[in-house]
Design a protein that fits this description.
The structure is a single chain. The protein is an alpha/beta fold. Among the domains are: 113 residues, P-loop containing nucleotide triphosphate hydrolases (Rossmann fold, 3-Layer(aba) Sandwich), CATH 3.40.50; 91 residues, Winged helix-like DNA-binding domain superfamily/Winged helix DNA-binding domain (Arc Repressor Mutant, subunit A, Orthogonal Bundle), CATH 1.10.10; 297 residues, Ribonuclease Inhibitor (Leucine-rich repeat, LRR (right-handed beta-alpha superhelix), Alpha-Beta Horseshoe), CATH 3.80.10.10; 140 residues. Helix content is 22%, strand content 17%. It contains 25 helices and 36 strands. It has a 21-stranded parallel β-sheet. Helix 13 crosses helix 15. The radius of gyration is 33 Å and the shape is globular. InterPro entries: Apaf_helical, LRR_dom_sf, LRR_R13L1-DRL21, NB-ARC, P-loop_NTPase, WH-like_DNA-bd_sf, WHD_DRP. Keywords: ATP-binding, Leucine-rich repeat, Nucleotide-binding, Plant defense, Repeat. Belongs to the disease resistance NB-LRR family. GO terms for molecular function: ADP binding; ATP binding. It holds the Pfam family LRR_R13L1-DRL21.
Length: 953
């Protein structure tokens, strides 16, 4: 049954914060349209994973990309609205390909449920979503009808009538509420019910949708609604795109009040939202809009329209200029990289969406006087692209996402922006070094553009001396007070302009100042009431964040940075002092300590080698995440880290830190500590982790003074422990058995480590993943896998002495990766006892010539990866390969075996011909030799480094 809220429930589950910690990847796929080929589902999954469009239909390529994205990850897949009830074969392919899948399927078809419940590859649990009770339906209806909590008695008398029509369906309650929006009289309710909702089937939600459509007003809203059905079901659309499309179709005609078409479009959108014919989807800081699938079906039924989408067009024909009535042209998803001059004849064109140009805009684009919106791809950042000459003539322009300043005499100067009074949204102004001074900058009239919410000011990327002209230019670029985001890049003035000091930008939410290497003094940012994010990067001439950082000389507020949640100080090479906030003296002579950073959650300090003085830790009462990275002074960490009781995440990297006991860290769950390149920490540092009883993640990288992990057993909540490049680490704790929560242990290039204690893993009942990588000195492997019942993945790479000490049995192990050496001639015989593994990777076994026949004993093996085994020529016998029943075989840089596996004449081909997925990649050195010999006068040859995708163990 449709309208029960299956998708709403799925979204609520999908977006539950606890799932973010449980799954590495979450994938949402709407299979609303009928799907007869599994490749289509796989493409949707890959597009959800990568966020980009997937070209081609080769199943093995698509599946390989999915597996690469999901390799060694725990993931959740939601299949929403699976319709096709003739999908036995499809499900066979699907669930056998994505083994280990956690999936939730939402469907309204009993037949699909039956197929799933009987399928041998699916552990199926059924959850039937029932109808809502009367009280819940009534509450939903009241919310969408915008009636008071206490409904007037005359309307309360109609409760049973409303509930009977809702029939327990939340979608019906929303639609009826939208129909009754702001209607306060009983007569208005009765009119709708008696005339429309009581006719026909009282339980049919399609009729309610039709009535909602019939009551849309004004009439053009119906056209806007129907137009939305040309997009695929579950498509999420931006407001600007929707309005521009409606405008291009002529649906938005200005009324007598002289409203703009954009404002009319926004009003129509609100109408569709109020009636629940469109739904709002919020993602991070952006809002999208979509149709419920039943509403989409109805909209399609009233719109007879065919649409085409030419994905592979690479150039626009010159005949495009004949489409003189064209209102919208969108080539952003195509391969088109140049625009013909004939485009400039489209005098009715209102919206142009383009991808990345490799040539300049057409010269006569200023003729497009109807242009209102010019959009470009996010990757389009080339500052050398010249703007159209005389763009200031496009006085209707509202969207212009960047402006590259050029020569004024060519009609590309900054004054072109002055006549564009309706600009809104985001604007990046580049090449500001070409502006002569304040007077020229003021010609842009940015202070008169209230709808610009984001501005980027960027000067050219070249070394320039301290430039008073830069200060004058920035002074003339004063924005409107409505501005919310501002970036200032490569400004070479000594100080910021007066409008910054005078706190003109009272609406500012985010500020980024980067590579302003001559700037000595920061403005009074502490008094910006709504500033949430502040990034200060590359201010090499700033030596002190002093009192002026918090306020101007006269201040009235008692809280500085009242809304700031994120603060980053990076590459401020000469910053020595970050002073505390000033104290305020009252009229009575009393001294008050000012509040500062009351809601700051994350502080990141990187590459500030001179900084030793900062505000007292009590100034950061809400700090949750602290990063001190790369080339920071030893005293900084000690001062910052003392008495910070609320931290849940700490990263120390690239510094000389002496005392970890000063940390008042991690009193909460989900806490983590990362130490990178801190060579001055004392040897007993980790013993002091007992201070942090709820610590869950510890990462040690290049911590040369760490010699032992003894004493860590008190960290009973620890789930992940990694030690990378700790060259003096000599021993692991024998009492590691107390780490009953440990799930992931990784030791990488710890050259001094010689043994793994016998007692080490005996009670690690939660250990799921173990990686030992390039620990050359390890000489013994006492691990009994039978005593690690949860171990699923084991990688052994570059530990030559351990290859012959392999464990012999495990019922839980599924993934095994072994890395041999160039002279390794045989595989460890213990492998044949690991009959439960499903994936085996053998890499760099340089001298082995044939795989043994006991490989056929690995009855559960699903995937075999062979990488860089140069002497390997033969697979196991035909009989052994048939017993393996592999689904996937990958052979990479195994030249002898690769040649024997060719379908034309390879002797090993019969052994692999029935494997569904085969990937064979061999180097082509002979081709390179031929190529080089063909160019006797070759001057330069650049060969990119080949990093094989399977290199990591």
């Amino acid at each position: 049954m449709g309208g029960l809220g299956k998708t709403t429930l799925a979204k609520a589950i999908f977006n539950t914060p606890q799932f973010d910690n449980h799954f590495d990847k979450k994938i949402w796929v709407c299979v609303a349209e009928k799907v007869d080929r599994i490749e289509e589902v796989f493409k949707m999954i890959l597009e959800s994973l990568t966020g980009g469009k997937v070209e081609g239909d080769r199943r093995e390529v698509i599946v390989q990309k999915i597996q690469d994205e999901l390799k060694e990850k725990r993931y959740l897949l939601v299949l929403d609205d699976l319709w096709n009830n003739n999908q036995d074969g499809l499900l066979d392919d699907f669930f056998s390909t994505l083994a280990g899948l956690n999936a939730i399927n939402f469907t309204r078809l009993q037949e699909v449920e039956t197929i799933l419940s009987r399928h041998p590859l699916i552990n199926f649990t059924r959850h039937e979503l029932g109808k809502l009770c009367g009280n819940d339906c009534w509450s939903i209806m009241k919310k969408w009808a915008n009636v008071e909590e206490e409904v007037p008695k005359e309307l309360e008398d109609m409760r049973e009538l409303v509930l009977r029509r809702c029939d327990g369906l939340p979608l019906a309650a929303k639609l009826i509420g939208g129909l009754l929006y702001n209607k306060k009289r009983k007569e208005e309710w009765l009119s709708i019910f008696e005339e429309s909702l009581l006719n026909g089937n009282p339980g049919g939600i399609e009729q309610i949708i039709k009535v909602s459509f019939d009551h849309l007003s004004p009439a053009p809203v119906k056209k806007c609604f129907a137009y939305c059905s040309i997009f695929h079901q579950d498509t999420e659309l931006e407001q600007d795109l929707l309005v521009e499309l409606w405008m291009a179709e002529g649906f938005l005609q200005p009324d007598s009040q002289n409203q703009t078409m954009e404002k009319i479009g926004c009003e129509y959108l609100r109408t569709l939202l109020q009636t629940s014919l469109l739904e709002e989807v919020k993602k991070e800081r952006r809002t999208w809009y979509k149709m419920h699938d039943l509403v989409h079906d109805f909209a399609k039924s009233i719109l007879n329209r065919n649409s085409s989408n030419q994905d592979h067009v690479k150039e626009l024909p010159t005949s495009i200029g004949k489409l003189i009535h064209l209102h919208l042209l969108d080539i952003s998803g195509s391969w088109i990289r140049t625009l013909p001059e004939s485009l400039c004849k489209l005098y009715s064109l209102q919206t142009l969406r383009i991808g990345m140009l490799v040539e300049d805009f057409p010269k006569e684009m200023s003729n497009l006087i109807s242009m209102r919106h010019l959009h470009y791809d996010d990757n389009f950042t080339r500052t050398e692209i010249q703007m159209p000459s005389g763009i200031g003539r496009l006085t209707c322009l509202q969207t212009l996402e960047f402006f590259n300043i050029g020569r004024q005499e060519e009609g590309r100067g900054i004054q072109e922006l002055g006549t564009l009074q309706d600009l809104k949204g985001s604007l990046e102004i580049r090449n500001l070094e070409l502006v002569n001074g304040k007077d020229d900058a003021e010609l842009a009239k940015l202070s008169e553009k209230p709808n610009l919410h984001r501005l980027v000011f960027e000067w050219g990327n070249r070394d320039r001396e301290s430039n008073k002209c830069d200060e004058d230019v920035l002074e003339g670029l004063q924005p409107h007070p409505n501005l919310k985001e501002l970036q200032i890049l490569k400004f070479m003035g000594d100080q910021f302009p007066q409008w910054f000091m005078n706190l003109t930008l009272t609406s500012l939410v985010e500020l980024r100042v980067k590579d302003c290497t001559r700037c000595r003094k920061l403005p009074a940012l502490g008094q910006l009431p709504f500033l949430k994010s502040l990034y200060l990067t590359g201010l090499e001439n700033t030596t002190c964040n002093g009192l002026s950082f918090y306020s101007s000389s006269t201040f009235s507020r008692q809280t500085f940075f009242p809304a700031l949640k994120f603060l980053s100080l990076e590459s401020m090479k000469n910053l020595e002092e970050w002073k505390d906030a000033p104290k305020m003296r009252s009229t009575a002579g009393e001294v008050h300590v000012m509040d500062v950073f009351p809601v700051l959650e994350k502080l990141s300090i990187s590459d500030c080698p001179q900084l030793t003085t900062i505000p007292t830790p009590s100034r950061f009462p809400s700090l949750d995440v602290l990063e001190i990275k790369k080339n920071c002074h030893v005293l900084l960490a000690e001062k910052v880290l003392s008495n910070m009781a609320n931290l849940s995440s700490l990263e120390l990297s690239g510094g000389s830190y002496q005392r970890i006991e000063s940390l008042e860290l991690v009193r909460r769950p989900e806490s983590s500590l990362s130490i990178v390149g801190c060579n001055s920490l004392p040897a007993d540092t980790l013993e002091r982790l007992c201070l942090f009883p709820t610590l869950q993640r510890v990462e040690l990288t290049s911590a040369d003074n760490v010699t032992t992990l003894r004493g860590m057993s008190c960290a009973a909540c620890l789930k992940r422990l990694t030690a990378h490049f700790c060259k003096n680490l000599r021993e692991l704790p024998e009492d590691l058995y107390q780490f009953q929560a440990l799930e992931h242990l990784e030791i990488w290039r710890c050259d001094a480590l010689t043994r793994l204690p016998v007692e080490m893993f005996e009670s690690c009942t939660s250990l799921r993943k173990l990686n030992l990588v390039y620990c050359d000195s390890l000489v013994s492997f006492p691990l009994d896998l039978r005593r690690t019942p949860s171990l699923e993945s084991f990688s052994l790479c570059g530990c030559l002495n351990l290859i012959t000490e392999m464990p012999t049995s495990s019922s839980s192990l599924r993934h095994m990766s072994l890395h041999g050496m160039p002279d390794t001639k045989s595989l460890p015989h213990q492998l044949q006892c690991l009959t439960a593994i499903t994936s085996l990777s053998l890499k760099h076994f340089g001298a082995i010539e044939a795989l043994p026949d006991w490989h056929g004993n690995l009855a559960s093996l699903d995937e075999l990866i062979l990488f860089c085994c140069h002497e390997l020529e033969y697979l196991p016998s035909v009989d052994a390969m048939e017993r393996l029943k592999l689904r996937r075989l990958e052979i990479t840089i195994c030249p002898l075996l690769g040649r024997r596996c060719t379908p034309e004449s390879g002797s090993e081909w019969p052994k692999i011909s029935n494997i569904p997925e085969r990937v064979i990649i061999n180097p082509v050195r002979s081709h390179l030799k031929i190529l080089i010999n063909s160019f006797s006068l070759l001057d330069h040859l650049i060969l990119p480094v080949f990093v094989p995708h399977s290199f990591s163990p």
